[in-house]
Amino acid sequence: MKTPTETTALDNIYMAQWAFSWSLGIGTAFELAFIITGWLGIPLIAFFFLIAVVLFNLVVFLNNIIFICLHREYRLPLLAYTLLMLINIPIAILYLYILTELGI
User: Fold this and answer.
1) What is the C-alpha separation between 52 and 77, in angstroms, rounded?
2) Cβ atoms 30, 64 nearer than 8 A
3) Above 70 in pLDDT, residue 59?
4) Spatial distance between the Cα atoms of 31 and 2, rounded to a whole number of angstroms
5) Residue 97: is its pLDDT beyond 90?
6) pTM to 2 decimals?
7) CA 87, CA 96: separation in Å to the nearest integer?
8) CA 27, CA 92: separation in Å to the nearest integer?
9) Residue 104 above 70 pLDDT?
10) Residues 22, 31, 82, CA angle at the centre, nearest 5°?
11) CA–CA separation, 74 and 5 (whole Å)
12) 43-47 own/partner pairs: CB under 8 Å, 24+ apart
């Protein structure tokens, strides 16, 4: 049987994986939809999506940082997935660069 701390650690790892995957996947879908269609409404929708995702990812990130500080035995796996979440930042900047180069 898993301890409550182990269950919470596994939940945090799952949430970090989920946040990374969905943020990257939906952001990529918005980017590709705009490149393919050229409809100017997509960047507006993506902007509001970005606000929601940034807030959600910030909460997950801070939760993981606090958990990493409190529970040393789960530090490495949580740190790995927390850093994985941070990879979304340069990808989002790249998407913004691509949009500006396309003339938005």
Assistant:
1) 26
2) no
3) yes
4) 41
5) no
6) 0.82
7) 15
8) 8
9) no
10) 35
11) 9
12) 43/99, 43/104
